[in-house]
TrEMBL record:
This is PAPD1 protein. Coiled coil: none annotated. The gene is Mtpap. GO terms for biological process: RNA 3'-end processing. Its cofactor is Mn(2+); Mg(2+).
Length: 526
């Protein structure tokens, strides 16, 4: 659609700014169990024009209301009362979260028009498999998966609102600060139900620099000085964490993890239903989010392939939400990007090519690392590659099933297989901090399990007889890859694993037997 194209061409920064502004004009209302949608909107309109709204289910029915003007919120807040403190005493913090109840429910006849509720989580894998079996090609199966799993417009609004509500606390101490989402909430690869990573940003330095040039004095604020940036970050997060814990409506299970490599505060935000991780501005993480945003916008095949492979990896226990020796979603996504750079002709450009297209305003040097790349999508030439998703999925499994991981590393800057600089089993260059391996956590058995699963998947796609499987009502194509490869396949797999160390095979087959039971339960729960 035209609307789709016009939103697609915006730069990452434009989208962020627009969404943050939208969130500032938004409130969240817990609705009565039975109410009339028209009457609710009529009442709200008395405070100003309602630009958009939607309802969703989360411990009852909730409404997200976006006003056209920020001033409408102040008008509404003036009319809202403070809860009566009968058994609990309340913390008198006035937020943009309200509860509406009917004054005299009996007298208000509620016309039974069913509300449209926006889903905030994706369907379980077993339901997805049923849907996939009805498709007519692997490409269309991949698009179905993408549509079921990707963030909806409503879910994105809710994510930015969660950040905006945290900002209301931060701005009590730091009026110029903003709270922005990063990672999967904004990089176009987010899945419904994923956590919200957010960071506190104090970046208003640029604006002040120009004003300071005027007048005869060098002027600066007197500020508390601390021995390190890390200590400042820890102190700021500690106080904001206490604030959320003590005063934040619906902020529960607040955990301060201040000694981590990247200090953070974890909490559950009950009103929006999100698990949130709050850290302090991490410029390199933002650049990674923008880089993926660019790749995700360049070609529609990119996102379809990444969502498919992430789902495949999760079903087979190759990735896991808990930290450990597994391949992370970020590493897997980078492997997909590398594969797409290696196609002939390439489907997406290398990071060095994006850097060549950068102009003055795209220059970013962060901590001595050059993180520059073009931000205007219109400057990037579209690919001439016309391979279908069916082909790309199958080729991905072939490519990594036979990749020489012992010798080669994955480098997205150059889009080339480069000799490994050190002996980690899987070496993926951090696109910006060039001396770091983003997959350093992955151990040999996990890598070999990935190779085995890739080979098995390539084999299933090659040998399958779609027509026969459809007649027999058996899962085919992508659906066949999303069922854990169980004991029945273990003996067949032995033959296909030639060239992988025998002790690893043994551990692999054992882990398969174990995994089959676990992942079957996991997949159903996911």
């Amino acid at each position: 659609t035209d609307a789709e194209v016009s939103t697609r061409k915006k730069t990452f920064a434009e989208v962020q700014t627009e969404r943050l502004d939208q969130a500032e004009r938004t409130v969240l209302i817990k609705c009565p169990s039975k109410f009339n949608e028209k009457k609710l909107l009529q009442y709200l309109s008395s405070h100003g024009n309602v630009k958009s709204h939607f309802f969703f289910e989360n411990r009852g029915i909730n409404a997200l209301i976006e006003f056209s003007e920020k001033s409408s919120i102040a008008s509404l807040q003036d009319a809202v009362g403070i809860p009566s403190a009968s058994e609990h005493h309340v913390v008198p913090f006035k937020s943009r979260l309200f509860t509406f109840t009917l004054k005299n429910p009996a007298s208000q006849r509620v016309e039974e028009t069913p509300l449209h509720l926006s889903p905030q989580c994706h369907i379980p894998v077993k339901d997805l498999i049923d849907k996939l079996c009805l498709a007519d090609s692997i490409s269309s199966q991949m698009h179905i998966l993408l549509n079921e799993y990707q963030l909806t417009e409503e879910n994105i609004k809710l994510r930015f609102l969660a950040c905006s509500l945290v900002r209301d606390f931060a701005s009590a101490y730091f009026p110029d600060s903003t709270v922005k989402p990063f990672g999967s909430s904004v990089n176009t690869f987010g899945k419904l139900g994923s956590d919200v990573d957010m960071f506190l940003d104090f970046c208003d330095t640029g604006k002040h620099a120009t004003k300071m040039k005027k007048g005869p004095f060098e002027m600066e604020y007197q500020m508390k000085r601390l021995p390190s940036e890390r200590l400042a970050t820890q102190r700021i997060l500690s106080v904001i964490g206490d604030c959320l814990d003590n005063f934040g409506p619906g902020c529960v299970n607040v955990q301060k993890i201040l000694n981590a490599r990247c200090p953070l505060v974890k909490f559950s935000h009950q009103p929006t239903g999100f698990q949130c991780d709050l850290s302090v501005s991490n410029s390199i993480a933002i650049r990674s989010s923008e880089l993926l945003y660019i790749y995700g916008c360049l070609d529609s095949r990119v996102r379809a392939l990444v969502f498919t492979l992430r789902c495949w990896a999760r079903v087979h226990g190759l990735t896991n939400s808990a930290p450990g020796t597994w391949i992370t979603n970020f590493s897997l996504t980078m492997m997909v990007m590398f594969f797409l750079q290696r196609r002939s002709p390439p489907i997406i450009p290398t990071l060095d090519q994006l850097k060549e297209l950068a102009d003055e305003k795209d220059k970013h040097i962060i901590g001595g690392y050059d993180c520059s790349f073009v931000s205007d999508l219109r400057k990037i030439k579209p690919t001439k590659n016309t391979e279908t998703l069916d082909v790309l999925l199958s080729e991905f499994f072939e490519y990594f099933g036979n990749f020489d991981f012992r010798k080669n590393s994955i480098n997205l800057r150059k889009g080339k297989e480069v000799n490994k600089p050190e002996s980690s089993p899987l070496y993926i260059w951090n696109p910006f901090e060039q001396d770091l391996n983003i997959s350093k956590n992955v151990n040999q058995p996990q890598l070999e399990k990935f190779i085995a699963m890739a080979r098995e998947s390539a084999w299933i796609l090659q040998k399958e007889d779609k027509a026969q499987q459809m007649i027999n009502k058996e899962p085919w194509g992508l659906a066949a890859l999303l069922i854990p490869f169980g004991k029945s396949n273990a003996s067949k797999m032995k033959n296909r694993m030639k060239g992988i160390g025998s002790e690893t095979i043994r551990s692999l087959l054992d882990s398969l037997k174990l995994n089959n039971a676990n992942s079957q339960q996991k997949a159903m729960g996911k």
